[in-house]
């Protein structure tokens, strides 16, 4: 169990944190499914944003529109939900989320943590991967309580770890290229000199789009929730006649294609149903010379990557914001990215090709940069307060990359350019 209270003191070693209204919990992802119950000490209320990979940014602010989103004053982000005391929020593993208290009294969040759930393919520790902020004290306190039963040497090792957000483990030049920004802004994303912790005070009032729901809409939503779920059509495959192969090398079958960067092709239980029984899937990746795959994490699977051709650089960042791997890879090598560990791939001068085997029949990834990324789906004001940057810089982080998944080599951020 974890309890968050949105009074500005922190009680160590009991997972209890306190703050007043107009505060925001930094965006983060976790390695388990969560049920979150909200209640106020008086009447608590606020906003909740959950960034679900692949969902469109359907909320749009008023402002001057432009074909180039970098020049537009409009903000686009995924749905922001109004929450109040008594709400129960379900959060799937690997989905980035944030809370904001805009009420006049503290808002309390109590979380049920189920580390033994099948969604968690890591160890039995609760892990939180922060996208922003500098969660040093909070995570050390939480880890000390969760790992009280560990061996003394292992516990000492955890105490000596330095915890940062996941961008803190990436090379700032790779970040600059991924987001197509200068290295100065990429450096700010690491929040290395930010001592605010995981709950931050918002400058002024958070500006997000969140329309009021009418009574008619509430009634329709309740009616929809009462309907029974979908059922199978009775024509499911059997093992005797199941299709056992699917080609992912044909460029015509690519799920993502960028003529300047490369392509991605996935086989899972949707196009090869027998994988549902095997609980496995695979992805074929091709990056052209000097191209980049968007920094991302696997939501519900581990990824075992075998390099089939070429060479390049791979970085993998763990939940403490440290790079657990940063090195050159070449044909014939294998690298594993555990569930929720963020990774980025950059091709060398000869390109980079690989196949990733994933431990889920419908493995999903969530991207950190690009047109369908977590950052793109978060309101500008949330980013500005989380990274302590201007709204203009937040807009650049969101909109400077229009590509999806595979990126062409950036012209603006050629390694080390400020």
TrEMBL record:
It holds the Pfam family Cupin_1. InterPro entries: 11S_seedstore_pln (IPR006044), Cupin_1 (IPR006045), RmlC-like_jellyroll (IPR014710), RmlC_Cupin_sf (IPR011051), Seed_Storage-Functional (IPR050253). The keyword Membrane applies. Residues 6-187, 246-395 form the Cupin type-1 domain. Residues 58-83, 137-161, 209-236 are annotated as: Disordered. The chain crosses the membrane at residues 25-43. Keywords: Disulfide bond, Membrane, Seed storage protein, Storage protein, Transmembrane, Transmembrane helix. CDD domains: cupin_11S_legumin_C (cd02243), cupin_11S_legumin_N (cd02242). One of its GO terms (molecular function) is nutrient reservoir activity. Residues 137-150 have a biased composition (Polar residues). Residues 66-83, 214-226 have a biased composition (Basic and acidic residues). The keyword Kinase does not apply. Belongs to the 11S seed storage protein (globulins) family. This is Cupin type-1 domain-containing protein. It comes from Populus deltoides.
């Amino acid at each position: 169990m974890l309890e968050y209270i949105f009074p500005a003191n922190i009680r160590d070693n009991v997972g209890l944190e306190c703050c007043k209204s107009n505060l925001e919990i930094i965006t983060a992802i976790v390695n388990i499914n969560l049920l979150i119950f909200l209640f106020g000490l008086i009447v608590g209320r606020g906003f909740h944003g959950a960034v679900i990979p692949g969902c469109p940014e359907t909320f749009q602010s008023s402002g001057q529109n432009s074909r180039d989103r970098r020049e537009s004053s409009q903000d686009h982000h995924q749905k922001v939900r109004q929450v109040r005391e008594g709400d129960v929020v379900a959060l799937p593993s690997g989905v980035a989320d944030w809370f904001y208290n805009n009420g006049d009294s503290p808002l309390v969040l109590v979380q049920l943590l189920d580390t033994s759930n099948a969604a968690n393919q890591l160890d039995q520790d609760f892990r939180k991967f922060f996208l922003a902020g500098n969660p040093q004290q909070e995570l050390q306190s939480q880890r000390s309580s969760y790992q009280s039963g560990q061996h003394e040497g292992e516990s000492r090792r955890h105490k000596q770890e330095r915890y940062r957000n996941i961008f803190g483990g990436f090379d700032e030049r790779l970040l600059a290229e991924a987001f197509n920004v200068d290295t100065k802004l990429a450096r700010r994303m690491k929040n290395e000199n930010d001592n605010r912790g995981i709950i931050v005070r918002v400058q002024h009032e958070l500006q997000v789009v969140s329309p009021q729901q009418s009574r008619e809409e509430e009634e329709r939503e309740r009616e929809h929730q009462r309907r029974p779920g979908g059922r199978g059509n009775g024509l499911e495959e059997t093992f005797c006649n199941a299709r056992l192969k699917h080609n992912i090398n044909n460029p015509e079958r690519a799920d993502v294609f960028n003529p300047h960067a490369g392509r991605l092709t996935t086989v899972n239980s949707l196009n090869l149903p027998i994988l549902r029984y095997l609980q496995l899937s695979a992805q074929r990746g091709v990056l052209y010379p000097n191209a980049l795959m968007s920094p991302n994490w696997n939501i519900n699977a581990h990824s075992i990557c075998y390099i089939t051709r070429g060479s390049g650089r791979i970085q993998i960042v763990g939940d403490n914001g440290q790079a657990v791997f940063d090195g050159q890879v070449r044909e014939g090598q294998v690298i594993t990215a555990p569930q929720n560990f963020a990774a980025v791939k950059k091709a060398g001068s000869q390109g980079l090709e690989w196949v990733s085997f994933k431990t889920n029949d419908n493995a999903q990834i969530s991207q950190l940069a690009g047109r369908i990324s977590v950052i793109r789906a978060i309101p500008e004001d949330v980013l500005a307060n989380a990274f302590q940057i201007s709204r203009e810089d937040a807009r650049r982080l969101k909109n400077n990359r229009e590509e999806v998944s595979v990126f062409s080599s950036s012209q603006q951020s050629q390694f080390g350019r400020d």
